[in-house]
Amino acid sequence: MRIRSIGSKLTVWYTSLLTLTFLLLGGITYGLLAYSLSRDMDFALNGVAEVLAENARIEGNVFVPSDVDELFRRFFGFSPLDRQIELFDPRGQLERQQKDRNNSLNIPLSPEAMQGAAQGISTFETVKTDEIYPIRVLTVPILKSGRVINLVRVGMSLENMYKTRRRFLLIMAAVFPLGLLLAGGGGWLLARRALRPVDEMTQTAQRISGEHLDQRLQESGNGDELDRLAGTLNDMLGRLDDAIHQMRQFSADASHELQTPLTILKGEMEVALLKQRSPEEYQRVLLSGLEEIDRINHLVSGLLLLARADAGVLRLDLQTVDLKELCRDVCEQMDSIAKTRSIDLQSGDMNPVIIQGDREHLRRLLLNLVDNALKYTSVGGSVRLTLKTSGTWALLEIADSGIGLSLEEQKKIFNRFHRATEARSSDGKGVGLGLSIALSIAEAHGGRIAVASIPGQGSTFSVHLPVTSG
Ligand code: ADP
User: Rounded to the nearest whole angstrom, what is the distance from the C-alpha of residue 257 to the centroid of ligand 1?
Assistant: First the structure.
């Protein structure tokens, strides 16, 4: 089964980690407990054996008094001193054992113990007997004048140690699931609480559609990850909202600009058809119709270019372009328009610059800028074109002594269908796409366009295009 909710996933991960931690810690604690229990036992055995050996060496007596042992056994059912003590001769024959005890080991000395004793070393062993629990035994040699005179063996049942270990395991088995249940439940509640804002965000996001992009996710303002996520999503929604708004505005403007020449065309034809006309009159109507069709054509080709540039599929027919020559061409082409307005159109400083680009697109870019410069410069003014290289860039400048642009306007003129107020009143022909198209062409070539202007004094449009070797 696949878990879909993050809360449940977190809880499963958390509980699994906790189980592992519990098991690891439990294992380590159990190991330490077992180790310290057996160390204590060996220590106790060693203590008793040492005392007995010392006693035997001095007094020849090896047995602890049994009354204390008895007392423990009567009240508690066992005695911490409950141990078997046996005395062997150096050859390993049993000499004596604790008299009042019937639970002697009844097992011979092991060869290891004998060997150890011969070298004067004490030997610890764990011995299995008929009893349920094994016995831990310590064999200690009793030395006198460097000679082994006897061996004392002290044995102790591992019953208590095994029981303590089992009790520990039982406690762990009871506490472990309980702890896990509590911690897992707590973890699940915490995860649910922490993720509640995500649920709320999901619900709000589901309500937001193209029609309601003005809605925003609620931000808690506490600066945590979820708050920052909500903020980021809100910023994104804001940008989407703007983009959709611009798209709608663009469609509305484009439809409007297309509708105007079509309405004129239709109106002129309807008027012409109202009565019989002379061939000259028909010719005039047809010529005017052609003008409108040209306008529509120009607008549609501009819109197409922008749409392709937006989609990143503007095809550039790359070839070697001599920018100086192109500037001269454009100046010649625009010269008659300049003359009709008595504007001095000149190419100033022109350094030869060769770039790789699409000649026709670059011509359109230049024509748009020069056309603007002429359109927004009053009679008797001047327009200058200069060309030079600046680092790895070709820098083309079109400076006019025209109406200029305020700072506010400079920021907006590259927007589609944007026209400054002065432009609207001074010229009825433009639609506000010329600069957007010029910018798209420059960008498709890896370049950019900037404007510097002083209202009433003129503007300079600078086109940067990358110069490629060859
Ligand atoms: P259009 O010229 O068709 O209106 P453009 O996109 O070419 O559209 O230009 C957008 C606006 O930028 C123009 O309406 C005008 O207000 C402003 N503009 C462009 N070029 C100049 C210029 N050389 N001097 C002053 N204003 C300009």
Answer: 16
Contact 191, 6 (CB under 8 A): yes
Q: Mutate which of 256, 401, 419 to test ligand 1's pocket (most atoms within 8 Å of Cβ)?
A: 419
Nearest CA to ligand 1 atom 23: 373
Q: Is the beta carbon of 440 within 6 A of some atom in ligand 1? A: no
Would you say residue 414 has pLDDT above 90? yes
What range defines the domain where residue 121 resides? Answer: 6-164
In this structure, how many other beta carbons lie within 10 angstroms of the beta carbon of residue 83?
Answer: 24
The whole-number pLDDT of residue 168 equals: 93
| Cβ atoms of residues 56 and 62 within 8 Å | yes
H-run or E-run covering 365: helix 359-375
The structure's pTM equals: 0.61
pLDDT tens per residue across span 115-143: 998 888 999 999 887 778 888 999 999 88
In this structure, are 56 and 148 located in the same domain? yes
Task: Tell me the per-residue pLDDT of 261-300, one tens digit each, with 9 for 90 and over.
Answer: 899 999 999 999 999 989 999 999 999 999 999 989 999 9
Instruction: Between 98 and 290, name the one with better pLDDT.
Output: 290
C-alpha to C-alpha distance for 405 and 422, rounded to whole angstroms: 9
CATH number at residue 427: 3.30.565.10
Whether 424 and 409 share a structural domain: yes
- CA of residue 96 to ligand 1 center, whole Å: 123
My answer on whether 341 and 378 are in the same domain is yes
